[in-house]
Amino acid sequence: MDPLALLSDEEDEAGADGEERGLQDPDPKRLRTAEPEGVNFEALRRIGYGAQAEAEEAANAAASLQGTFSALQQKAQEDAAGRFKADIALDEAKEKAQDPSRLGCEEPPESIEVYDEQAAQRGDDAENQWPPWSTLEAAEEGLTKTLVDAMRTAGFTEPTPIQAQGWPILCHGRDLIGVARTGSGKTLAFLLPCFARLLKEGLRSRMGSGSGPGDDASLPVQMQKQAAGPGAYSPEILVLAPSRELAAQIETEARRFTASTGIATLACYGGEGTRRETLGRLRERPECVVGTVGRLIDFIDNEKHWYGSQNKNPGKVLIFAFDHEECDSMAKKIKAALNGATVETLHGNKKQADREAAMQRFRSGDSWIMVATSIAGRGLDIKDINLVINFDPPEDGQDYVHRIGRTGRAGRKGKAITLLRKGPDGRAMIFITQVMRRTGLDVPQELIEALKQRRGRDMSLAAEVLQGLTNQQRLERSWAKLI
Questions:
Q1: The pLDDT value given to residue 178
Q2: What average pLDDT does range 246-265 have in this prediction?
Q3: Are residues 265 and 293 in the same domain?
Q4: Which residue in 78, 283, 327, 438 has the most C-beta neighbors within 10 A?
Q5: Cα dihedral angle (316, 317, 323, 329), rounded to 10 degrees?
Q6: Are 264 and 286 in contact (CB under 8 A)?
Q7: What digits encode the pLDDT tens for the residues 290-329?
Q8: Global confidence as pTM
Q9: In sequence order, what DSSP letters do the residues of 12-69 get, joined into one string?
Q10: H-assigned helices in 172-292
Q11: In the listed set 272, 302, 332, which residue is the last one of a domain according to the structure?
Q12: What integer pLDDT is reported at residue 389 of this predicted model?
């Protein structure tokens, strides 16, 4: 409600009469709800409404608007400056991304430079060891005529520089690091020597001939997975690619030679809905697999029962553990690490029949790793154990001699490795050092330093062993002078 409408003309008249009588109204601004009959400007002036007040109010409003406008203008300028800086930073980032030096190397030159480190170590010319195969005719002997004819059919007329220089090196079985620009032919530079080697050595049958009753080619694909056995499939050629796009590109290049060579290639990479299809095609056992690291690790970890890396058998290995629980735990871990390899255990908690069966499999070579407690340290006569590992050291020197005596039998050579902890295995350090000194073996410097740090009950024994080593070294030096 407008407060001006509540002012009473009668109050103004009463106020005027009060002045004439010398009296003053105690509440000249008292309000009432009656409708005014007119506007009393004198009353407005007394309560602060007037031209001067309006002017001041207008000035204040103008100042407020000016301040708001200035703030908005400043904010707009700051936003524009921020966008300009962001655009500059984006342009700089794009330039740096395109700069090969940001990747740790310079842009590959147009010229070809070859450096052979082995030739340099021999003192030979390291830069002119490998004449390039500059024509397809020159490459026929190394790559086979089959591959070269396939290149001609595909429209190739001559090798690119990286191909001409890389083919002779790779076909001779040498390692190679090649750096070349995009589109220079690097894919065929490393693929074709691999294909040529497979053609010369003969392709392994991926699915068998299907002629014999034991041939898994006659089985459905689902049953071939179980029939393959642990680690039965490993590709002849494995190519690692950093991205699925590059893996697919390499697969496309390799498949141009499938018809002429019979070499099947499969790309393995991540992506929704691709895993089942890729696994199905892997069970056809392609010779060449191109994969991203993540997908290959997935397959190796989850498909060990038929697909995985093939492990080279180093010979029979006997591992000594502390007790039966550690035997079983270690055997389980080794089996998982070696993609399902058979690992035997031998300890007192196994039945006699199971122990004899494990010994027979280890002796015959069906299993080449055995994890055992000290019961295998005596009476175990297997002549072809190549390596003994004391995962936990024995209690005394006599047991140590019996353990390491399981290798190097019947005139053969063998190795024994003992794992020692600086704290709890102090006594083992002492008797192992004594055995090595008596048998004329050099005591490792790390073991000598560990003996010097012994304290407590082992300190005197360690000092005695070290004194014996010192005397032996002095004697050996004296003999050397006499000789």
A1: 86
A2: 91
A3: yes
A4: 327
A5: -100
A6: yes
A7: 999 888 888 877 766 555 555 555 688 999 999 999 999 9
A8: 0.43
A9: HHHHHHHHHTT---S-TT---SSPPSS--HHHHHHTT-SHHHHHHHHHHHHHHHHHHH
A10: 186-201, 221-228, 244-255, 258-261, 275-282
A11: 302
A12: 93
Domain with residue 355: its CATH number is 3.40.50.300
Whether residue 325 sits in one domain with residue 297: no
Return the H-helix or E-strand segment holding 289. Answer: strand 288-292
Number of structural domains found in the chain:
4
Please indicate, yes or no, if residue 307 is contained in any of the structural domains. no
Position 113 in a domain? no
Do 346 and 428 fall within a single domain?
yes
Strongest mean pLDDT among 238-242, 461-465, 475-479: 238-242
Same domain, 339 and 477: yes
Give whole-number Cα distances, 139 to 155, 189, 249, in Å: 16, 12, 24
Q: Residue 252: give the domain boundaries.
A: 229-302
**Spatial contact of 391 and 404, defined as CB atoms under 8 Å apart:** no
Residue 17 clears pLDDT 60, i.e. is over it: no
Residue whose C-alpha is closest to residue 159's, from 146, 147, 172: 147
Instruction: Please name the amino acid found at residue 125.
Output: D
**Phi-psi region for residue 22, left (φ > 0), alpha (ψ -120 to 50) or beta?**
left
Copy the structure tokens of residue 319.
Answer: 């591992």
Asked whether residue 323 is domain-assigned, the answer is: yes
In this predicted structure, the answer to whether residue 233 has a pLDDT above a threshold of 60 is: yes
Long-range contacts of 212-216 (CB under 8 A, 24+ apart): none
- Please indicate, yes or no, whether residues 152 and 277 belong to a single structural domain of this protein: no
In a domain, 66, yes or no: no
User: Span 89-116, mean pLDDT?
Assistant: 60
In this predicted model, which residue has the larger pLDDT, 224 or 256? Answer: 256
Calculate ∠ Cα 308-338-375, nearest 5°.
Answer: 160
Q: Which of 201, 217, 243 is the last residue of a domain?
A: 201
Cα distances (angstroms) measured from residue 365 to each of 316, 351, 358, 437 = 8, 21, 11, 34
| Residue 362 · residue 370 · CB < 8 Å | yes
Rounded CA-CA distance 403/324 in Å is: 17
pLDDT value of residue 110: 64
The sheet with strand 385-390 has its strands ordered as: 343-346, 369-372, 316-320, 385-390, 415-418
- For residues 351 and 294, state if they share a domain: no
Q: What is the 3-state secondary structure (H, E, C) of 358-382?
A: HHHHHHHCCCCEEEECHHHHCCCCC
Degrees to nearest 5, angle at CA 276 with 270 and 278: 65
295 in the same domain as 320: no
Mean pLDDT of 162-168: 89
pLDDT at 210: 38
Calculate Rg over the CA atoms of the chain.
Answer: 45
